[in-house]
Design a protein that fits this description.
Layout: H1 3-12, E1 16-22, E2 28-33, H2 35-38, H3 42-54, E3 60-64, H4 69-79, E4 83-86, E5 99-100, E6 108-116, H5 120-131, E7 135-144, H6 149-154, E8 159-165, H7 166-177
Parallel strand pairs: 3-4, 3-6, 6-7, 7-8
Antiparallel strand pairs: 1-2, 4-5
Helix pairs in contact: 1-3, 3-4
């Protein structure tokens, strides 16, 4: 995968913004990666699907609702691999499922995520999948904000692989200021 092409697409889609932003975990940041901007942009989605596909073998894919659903769906189409959706909590109606779709009886599941900061949502998805009997050893993320997600996931024996790091995005922004 051409990392710079993905960074260029994120920049061109205006998915990386600078200013003062409050993050989901309660902290603040001088930049924000707007996942909904890049997840609704066909160019970004195509590049993400291609990059994720290069890192996959014969696993089942899992996406965390709501943010990673477009990513897991487009990657499934790119690879032909099946996927499941992991809800933050079991729904209180219908089937009451927390995991939507069919988990394999054996084989590995790879969690796909949009932006990793602390790793909380990815770790919760891994826990839900493991509780359902899945083997999960990896999380693939579009952007790692490098704020502890890698370390948190390592504590539960899960590797974090990022297409782009915060350092990559910040270096690109700095290079385009000149």
């Amino acid at each position: 995968m051409d990392t710079q092409a993905l960074i260029d697409a994120l920049r061109d889609a205006d998915a990386v913004r600078f200013g003062e932003f409050e993050l989901a975990h309660g902290g603040t940041s001088s930049y924000y990666v707007d996942k909904y901007v890049f997840e609704t942009n066909p160019t970004c989605l195509a590049l993400v699907a291609e990059a994720f596909a290069e890192r996959l073998d014969d696993e089942t894919l899992a996406g965390v609702a709501l943010g990673a659903v477009p990513l897991v769906a487009v990657t499934s189409v790119e690879t032909g691999l099946p996927y499941v959706i992991v809800r933050k909590a079991a729904k209180e109606y219908g089937t009451g499922n927390r995991i939507e779709g069919s988990l394999p009886a054996d084989g590995e599941v790879v969690v796909l995520e949009d932006v990793a900061t602390t790793g909380t949502s990815a770790a919760e998805a891994v826990a839900a999948l493991r509780e359902a009997g899945a083997t999960v050893n990896r999380v693939l993320v579009v952007v790692d904000r490098e704020e502890g997600a890698r370390e948190r996931l390592a504590e539960i024996d899960v590797d974090l692989e990022a297409l782009v790091s915060a350092a990559d995005l910040l270096a690109d922004a700095e290079a385009h200021e000149e």
